[in-house]
Specification:
Rossmann fold, 2 domains, 329 residues, 46% helix, 4-stranded parallel sheet, alpha/beta, single chain
């Protein structure tokens, strides 16, 4: 099944499946943001979703389609935190045992929330150990279902409901969405959103926003093949540190994406402070990269664009440091 590419119809079905479980997160506008960005910006606030990020959408969509026997055996996932919380929360709702393989240096708030939701957390060294191999070994030993963070049709379809909701909002307002800017790690969010928006706004351009050093999707698009991050670049955007695009996500994204955009850690931090000051939102660094892109005038050539604020799970000390460093963003 994982070799089958999801479709816009799958995203539509996921929207119906998830409707009674999740929040249709608000779409905000800000005169200050529109002025700074040089365009009208529709802000999709996934930072306000259950679990503090969009990840619950893909995780729950996958778990809801497991059989009773599969659920009884439990699930395993690997994640730096947001997917971990999404899987843990979905598993709690459905009374499924969840085991999460998480890096030792993940933000403490993400580890704590994952444990609080009832999941077993197994820590690993991201610089010395292979998280996928470790998670696959645990899943095999326990007979559990492996829930990928992005590279599965059900997960991509669930994450695509973000774009479905944003597109429908734009339609109700009589707006034509010219472009979408979304954070990109493994590529599941932008792939799913692209599938849904292609049906609603066929001419909508799609931009994957990545942190500097982890621009593997941008480089993969240029090379027309999946590229791998070399070395261990540092970034505050911990949720966007995928070493390579997913096989399924890239098969979609190489066809539908317009381009990849890279932002610096400083730009992400400034966007976090802007979000707090002008949008009254808590954002983690990874969740703010699309905002950082439009604040840099990347969307100024368009009349109306959408951005996804993908997550709010940031350690308090980091958030306070950012606000202190950017008192008037």
């Amino acid at each position: 099944m994982t070799g089958v590419l999801p479709t816009a119809g799958d995203v539509e079905e996921a929207g119906g499946r998830l409707r009674d479980w999740l929040i249709a997160t608000p779409v905000l506008e800000s005169d200050v943001l529109n002025q700074r960005a040089g365009t009208r910006v529709l802000v999709k606030t996934e930072s306000l979703q259950y679990g503090g990020s969009f990840k619950i959408r893909g995780a729950l969509n996958r778990l809801l389609q497991l059989s009773y026997t599969e659920r009884s055996a439990g699930v395993v996932a690997f994640s730096s935190g947001n997917h971990a919380q999404g899987v843990a929360l979905a598993a709690k709702w459905l009374d499924v045992r969840a085991t999460i393989v998480m890096p030792k240096d993940a933000p403490k708030i993400k580890e704590l929330k994952t444990r609080t939701l009832g999941a077993e957390v197994i820590l690993y060294d991201r610089y010395r150990e292979d998280r996928e191999q470790l998670a696959a070994q645990i899943a095999t030993e326990r007979g559990a279902a492996l829930i990928p963070a992005f590279d599965h049709p059900d997960v991509i379809a669930g994450q695509g409901t973000v774009g479905l909701e944003l597109g429908r909002y734009a339609q109700t307002k009589g707006l034509k969405l010219a472009a979408l800017y979304a954070p990109c790690g493994g590529g599941g969010l932008i792939a799913g959103c692209g599938l849904s928006l292609a049906e609603l706004f066929p001419e909508c351009r799609l931009y994957a926003v990545e942190p500097e050093g982890y621009d593997e999707t941008r480089r993969s698009l240029a090379a027309e093949s999946r590229q791998v991050v070399r070395g261990q670049p540092t970034t505050i955007c911990d949720a966007l540190m995928a070493p390579t695009p997913g096989a399924i996500t890239f098969a979609i994204n190489r066809r539908i994406l317009t381009a990849g955009i890279t932002v610096t850690d400083a730009q992400a931090a400034h966007a976090m402070a802007f979000g707090a000051r002008h949008l009254k939102l808590v954002l983690e660094p990874s969740g703010a990269v699309a905002l950082a892109a439009v604040l840099s005038k990347a969307a100024a050539d368009y009349d109306c664009v959408g951005i996804v604020l993908s997550g709010a799970n940031v350690d308090a000390n980091i958030f306070m440091d950012v606000l202190s460093d950017h008192p008037d963003p």
